Structure formats: C-alpha cells, structure tokens
Model the fold of this input.
Amino acid sequence: MRVLGVDCGGEYTGYGVVEQDECGQLRHVCSGAIRLRSRDALEVRLMKICDGLTAVIAGSSPEIVAIEDVFYAANAKSALKLGHVRGVAMLTAAQAGLPVVAYSPLSIKAAVVGYGRAEKSQVQLMVARLLQLAEAPEPADTADALAIAICHLNTAATLARQHVTTK
Done:
C-alpha cells in the first residue's frame, strides 16, 4: 500500500509518501513541504497547495491520502485558515479519485512514537528511524506528514489482521 500523508499548515504544508510491502517493511517514496508566503493572498496560497499536491499525486501514485483530523485551536482565525488548507488537500485528493482518511494528532504520535503527547523532535527522530533516513526530515511539517502516512499504514495493517475493511 502507498499512502500520501499531508500535514496542513499556514506557512508550510508538508507531504510524505510512504509505501509498505507485504512483509510490513516501510519505504520512503518522497517527501517535502510546500512553502507558502504570508504576503500572498489566501486564494493564491490555496492554489499553490492544490498545484503542489496535484504534482505529488501524479508523480508518486498513492492509493489513499491521510491527513490530520480537525482539532480545537485557541485562535479562531488560525483554525479557519487551517480549515481552508485542509479543505484544499481533501478536494485535491478527491479530484484525483483518492479516498481520504483522517487521524487525530494523538493517534498519529502514538502510532509513530508510542506516546500521544510526544514532542515534534521525537516525531522527527522516530520517522527517520522507521524509514531508515540518514537525517530527521525538515521542516517538521514534512516529518509530520510522513508520520500521518505511517499512522495510516499501521492502522490499515491492524485492521487487516482483524479482518476489518476501511475505505
């Protein structure tokens, strides 16, 4: 299975494609971050995310897209902007004919680090270790996107062992 993980953000939107073979071995396919300029209009930033994710999907052929679930933020304006980015990521996946699954931040960290309240640096180090990368992915948004993909692969494998179907 090949999964595109997307970490939606206002400054960077991270992406990471991870593949898991029949033996359960994880393989890093590609990753990076779409850098957004705060001085650009919101619609321009959203278009840049759409274009970037469309290119990643075309170049890596994932079977499913995994994103972080909505969470509560203290700042309503930031939460609204994040919602726009998340909506564009979901729309881009749907336009490519890909299903979208969402995971809570606690689930993602627990799947990768083993602890739902892990620090970003711990997530970066574990992602590097799990994918046998020479260095921790930078920026942290890239590591988070890879962690989201790994979370889905772990969840899908567990559900398969329990004979439960997902999207």
Remarks:
- The chain has one domain: 2-161.
- The longest helix spans residues 140-161.
